[in-house]
Design goal:
homodimer; about 850 residues; Clc chloride channel; CBS-domain; elongated; endosome (chains A, B); Cl-channel_core (chains A, B); membrane (chains A, B); ClC (chains A, B); Chloride channel protein (chains A, B)
Chain lengths: ~850, ~850
């Protein structure tokens, strides 16, 4: 056990090494890596009685819990018992947490409050202190500004690099290899508006080698080089992830949800994870795998925020304050991913965050805006647009169309539920069979299959974002896309009159496109299941939206043709004349995309707001809302978990879903440890254990904290000590304090007991003890986890209601989660961490 | 004391009568109306220890708190002690609350959870029960739909009626008196595009009488008739408010905030308030007073929601569930006021709501959208626009312009702070002097002054919304508005080349407009202070925005002229050429409006989002945000309260601001009642008081609840009984149960004590007792009100930590508020209610 304070991002090597030996991560769980210990947790109990009683075995009581509570957090009180300055660390590492443990929100918030009070008090004394107080107050805003700038800049860089490498698979720019296809042809003077994408400077590999773009040989050459590049990028990505930061794989959102709920995963948001994730994200996207960069951008933004937190003492030293910043960073991530700042803030509020005070809302919004504008000034899409998919529809929708929109919602819900089940099953196979031992082989195999199948079909060959963009697009007359391969009005009637954007019959080009799209839909649906969860950074937003957009566009074109050929039919009569533009297939694609994304993630408000920000028209919110609602209801019927919650459960993180409620009511005594058959609870006594005894007890158990009682004979609860604080303090005392040996008494009471005068001086550790651990009585009902989740506790001590504060046992968050799993007929041992 | 259950909206007559005799309301406080009692409240204490202990003086303990807890809420438990069906009321009125009291969130939520569990359990038994379960699950959505439809329709009606009556002051449509000016001229075929507002069918009163629109006589006639109409409308409004629903005055937002925090004000959201508010709002707006209809629309929407709640048992019977619906209704109100559904939801979240679960977020959004679309299909503005002010700007803004934007923010903050201070001072004068006794005279006087001063100036004569709309507008070439009275390019240079929308020098028309605007600014600033708080419905959004918009437009035109004449100057060089349209005065007006509204209400995110929804362009968010932020910071420097919080405090409502923290830390014992000098606490004993004794105790005190102890000699806490439940139960027992007389024992313990066999049977009231009141020990620190606010308690009982559960005293929310007022050197007796 190290006594050096371990900051989140400093820890990458240690956890990196650990992880490297265990490639199980991203396959569901750090199997056997961190054996679970049975305490040290946050618990959620809903009971009827709260009793804020202080410890009544600790004379004198009038010293008050308050100062004690402060000093245990290493913080100066106003009373005479103050020992330390709240702005300085007394013992390095005291008050920090171990890896894979849950923080104590109450302690962190109390620490921050004390710190704030101290600064305010000082500010009246001198000008320097006043300046310090002002700079402290504005440091939150400055931090948000920096997070926004950094995340926006990184997102811009990722966009540009991914564009360039994606195009690299197909060809090269003769003016310079560092130009992407689009960039290359911008510079060309020979490009006309019609053929924006064709210019002599850009040559496919086949063209470059054979000298001609025609012929089967050139095509096969292109095909092969495409696959080779894809394999190379994928290999690079998976190797870098394995070598530098195993945490860089996946989308990161399940872990960020868990971290925001108060869990500690050191290195998950560190600098090496950031660098590796940024680089490998570009490679993974460029390899053509069916994954998106939007989810991982949330992880990237959170890494930026965590690293920048180190610049400000206020955030560096307080895990609760840091989580406020991380919540805002999650908003920043979505803001730069879609160019939707308001949607990003609501995403953070609805989907990711745990503790989201109003102050954070306002700051998140600020950071999200800064990031969006930074991204726009980098202008990676080359169109000065803020949003990822810019859509402009011309025709309004009709009420009857709600039927197909709801149908798309049902499709999205079904696909979402099915996807989650299939993906979790596949991840479980990966986790339990030999497959998990060969992540590189797995990635290469999936990449090879993807590249092989994707190349011949233009809709799978293009990147997910391009595909969605094309599907959302409304056909204009100039459009050369296959999807707009309608017969021209002139072909139909010789008059040539009528609205040129009116519904038209499908031509052969469109039929080809539809076939290709149907195949692409099938392929995307299958390959995404095996792709998400591999050891490369991979987001789910884009693949889900792509599936939905294809389905929606197919339905939309179908509806359009139906309307064209049956405009006098019962359904279309009155609103669909042949001259009018009555069905917009692009809108169907958009609704389908929302439905599928909703089915997979179970987002609601944030999903609709993100989509609203893409179109900018309130008009289209109703279809989006109808689809998102239907999709959520349908998917919820098959299982209430979204993909992120499912992965959290698969990995065994201690995450308590705020929406969940106990179906059956239990009493605290049913959930408590130790059980009747277990060995008795490991406890410390307040003034009768030696340093050696304490060390032996700590060594022999894996608990993260120990209750302190009066004595073994009179097990009345006095306080609670965290394992980490205990070890650090003893270690520190042995180094600095003279005379502390193994035989020294460890004293938690205020006055040490009378001792032999020749004995070693006692080690007084009252300062690190939580004098007022949260206690419940054994018959407290546990109805809803929600109300006590708000208190943010680590554990409850159970005391007897009859004998004053007789300690009976402990309940940790893990115990609650195990109990809930048991009730739901799931394996209680699937909860791994504390 | 009535035993009939009194629903919120049924109570209008009673409270109406009460209020009629006391015109103090809307002047700040129901002075002396409801004398404060000293208990029955919600308390917010932050302590370190929570002890969920059950009552240990009640044998046998193993019966568990849980079933007991259920049965006290009139709810069936699963255990053998179940007595009642949770879906039926056992005793009418049991479990409801008295007027001007705070609800017990924990009890309400527990009731709802039990109800839900019961329905789920039943649904497995029969198809009918399953259908009931499904309809119950969807009733929330149905309710939201109805609220949206009703509020949208009402808002549309109010818009149309207010338009019509406002125009009525100036003239009449010859085709039918029921047409507004605009409507009248739509129908006219003689109207050209240029003179949309002039048509022969519409005649001013002077024109109608004198036959000509020219001449001083006609003008004076118009002037006089304008004043007469204004006085008539105002008189009607104030008389109707006084006669039918005194609660209909003001904006309603302070009271709704208080109601959402758990306070009961019967009749405040009832049907008579709704009808009166709707009618008088139209009249007040039409009278030309400096007030808006946007704030009161929130009240109207909440009334709709409260009335519609009566259709669904789930919401009718549960105060906590009903408050979820009311939170959504607040969103609906803003949604219809501005056509900004997302802004409305964020307004509800940020500004109004107290308890806002994610489920409510999604439902609010749904309701807000339905309402917005209902309003649009009514199309009251006649332009198919959803938003109140539709703005389209052409030119981007430059970074240098942030300086004037921040300047506008400072102006808004200063004005906001000043306005709050002046308005509160004026309301206090009204409250304490004889002025408050003549509300009709006051309203008529203010209306007369407003009409007299406003008529000659066209910018004050037009309605606030029209003024803002004109100020936000960007000048196009065709614009005939005085504000666009620039010299034409042809006048400047003979070339006539250049962008026709480029900056131009101001012409005489514009100078006149600027003078008029400056006078209008001064007038609006003064008159709004005395208008807000009168006994008519009055909103603050529009007047605040108008002040800001005028200031912004003035600054904008100033900047524009500066740029035109100094385009080679240091500041404008590089981005402001003479041919370019570089300054948009309309944007300045918008930024100013946001700044002033922010200064008055201290809204942040919702303000910016509402403004964003008006423009639809993310580009202009940065100026808005800069102004809103500056404005809030500047205003906060003068006092942290927004106008709504200031009015809450003025009225003495028991509202605990979530943002507030205790500056000094106190112990529970310092806040507790009774004080040392007070008479001892009024308590009930568990099995030694008679019905007569209990009644005498209840009669002699005004407390809303009583602790139950073992006996006077052994004051150990057993439970807590609410006054209302106690009275209703005794009354009910006397009526229905044989043998209950004054000498009957009232028994709260499980087993009645041995009694003389010939005595009357005991009255067993264990069912209505809260067996597990929240308790704290006397030395619990009270640091932050926030963490315990979340628990939603009514009161805490103080117990001794040494002697098991010895009752020491009680802390109510009022005690906390008084304590906070004392610390802040304010009058603690300003807190009036429980």
């Amino acid at each position: 056990m190290s006594t050096v304070p371990l900051e989140m991002s400093d820890f990458w090597t240690k956890s990196g090494f650990r992880m490297r030996e265990h490639p199980g991560y991203c396959n569901g769980g750090f199997d056997g890596l961190h054996p679970p210990s049975d305490d040290d947790d946050m618990v959620d109990i809903a009971g009827a009685t709260l009793d804020f009683s202080s410890t009544d075995d600790v004379p004198p009581l009038s010293s008050g819990v308050y100062e004690e509570h402060q000093s245990r957090a290493g913080v100066n009180g106003t009373g005479p018992s103050s020992l330390m300055d709240p702005l300085e660390d007394p013992v390095p590492g005291l008050g920090t947490y171990e890896d894979f443990n849950t923080i104590d929100w109450v302690r962190e918030k109390s620490k921050d409050r004390d710190r704030h009070r101290e600064i305010t008090k000082n500010s009246r004394r001198s000008t320097a202190a006043l300046l310090h107080s002002i700079s402290d107050a504005f440091s939150g805003w400055l931090l948000m500004l920096l997070v926004g700038l950094m995340a926006g800049a990184l997102a811009g860089g990722i966009d540009i690099a991914a564009h360039w490498l994606t195009d690299m698979k197909e060809g090269i720019c003769l003016d310079g290899f560092w130009f992407s296809h689009e960039h290359c042809c911008w510079k060309s003077s020979e490009t006309t508006f019609k053929d924006r994408d064709r210019c002599p400077q850009w040559q496919t590999w086949g063209e470059l080698i054979t000298g001609t773009s025609e012929g089967a040989f050139s095509y096969i050459l292109n095909y092969l080089i495409y696959i080779v590049w894809a394999l190379f990028f994928a290999f690079l990505a998976v190797t870098l992830v394995r070598a530098f930061a195993p945490y860089a794989c996946g989308s990161g959102i399940p872990e960020i949800k868990t971290i925001l709920s108060g869990f500690i995963i050191r290195g998950y948001l560190g600098k090496w994870t950031l660098i590796t994730k940024t680089v490998t994200l570009v490679l993974a996207v460029s390899s053509g795998l069916s994954l998106g960069k939007e989810g991982p951008l949330v992880h990237v933004a959170c890494c930026c925020a965590n690293i920048l937190c180190h610049l400000f003492t206020k955030y560096r030293k307080n895990e609760a304050k840091r989580r406020e910043v991380l919540s805002a960073a999650a908003a920043v991530g979505v803001s730069v991913a879609f160019g939707a700042p308001i949607g990003g803030v609501l995403f953070s509020l609805e989907e990711v965050s745990y503790y989201f005070p109003l102050k954070t809302l306002w700051r998140s919004f600020f950071a999200a805006l800064v990031a969006a504008f930074t991204l726009r000034s980098i202008n990676p899409f080359g169109n000065s647009r803020l949003v990822l998919f810019y859509v402009e529809f011309h025709a309004p929708w009709h009420l009857v169309e709600l039927v197909p929109f709801i149908f798309l919602g049902i499709f999205g819900g079904l696909w979402g539920a099915l996807f989650i089940k299939a993906n979790i099953a596949w991840c479980r196979i990966r986790k339990t069979t030999r497959l998990g031992r060969y992540p590189i082989v797995e990635v290469l195999a999936v990449t090879a299959v993807t590249a092989l199948v994707a190349y011949p079909n233009s809709y799978t060959r293009m990147s997910g974002a391009e595909l969605i963009s094309e599907l959302f697009n409304d056909c204009s007359l100039l459009d050369s896309s296959q999807l707009c391969g309608y017969l021209q009005p002139a072909n139909i009637s010789e008059t040539g009159i009528g609205n040129s954007l009116a519904d038209r019959p499908a031509g052969p080009g469109l039929f080809t496109a539809l076939w290709q799209l149907a195949l692409a839909l099938l392929f995307k649906m299958l390959i995404t299941v095996v792709t998400f969860g591999m050891k490369v950074p991979s987001g789910l937003f884009i693949p889900s939206m792509a599936v939905g957009a294809i389905a929606g566009r197919l339905l939309g074109v179908g509806m359009e043709q139906l309307a064209y050929y049956n405009h006098d039919g019962l359904i279309f009569k009155g609103w669909c004349t042949p001259e009018a533009d009555c069905i917009t297939p692009g809108l169907y694609a958009m609704v389908g995309a929302a439905a599928c994304l909703g089915g997979v993630t179970r987002m609601t408000v944030s999903l609709v707001v993100i989509m609203f920000e893409l179109t900018g028209g309130l008009e289209y919110i109703v279809p989006l809302m109808a689809a998102a609602m239907t999709s959520k209801w349908v998917a919820d019927a098959f299982g209430r978990e979204g993909i992120y919650e499912a992965h959290i459960r698969l990995n065994g993180y201690p995450f308590l879903e705020p929406k969940e409620e106990f179906e059956h009511s239990s009493l605290a005594v049913d959930v408590m440890r130790p059980r009747r058959s277990d060995p008795p609870l490991a406890v410390l006594t307040q003034d009768s254990m030696t340093v050696g005894g304490v060390e032996a007890l700590v060594e022999s158990t894996r608990y993260s904290g120990f209750p302190v009682v009066v004595s073994q004979e009179s097990p009345r609860l006095v306080g609670f000590v965290l394992r980490r604080d205990l070890l650090i303090s003893i270690d520190n005392a042995r180094k600095r304090q003279d005379g502390v040996v193994g035989a020294s008494l460890v004293v938690f009471s205020e006055h040490p007991p009378a001792q032999a005068p020749d004995g070693p001086p006692p080690l007084r550790l009252r300062g690190i003890m939580d004098l007022s651990p949260f206690t419940v009585t054994d018959h407290t009902p546990m109805t809803s986890p929600d109300i006590f989740r708000k208190l943010g506790l680590r554990q409850f001590c159970l005391v007897s209601p009859r004998v004053t504060r007789r300690l009976l046992g402990i309940i940790t968050k893990k115990d609650i989660l195990k109990h809930m799993a048991q009730i739901a007929n799931r394996d209680p041992d699937s909860i791994l961490f504390n």
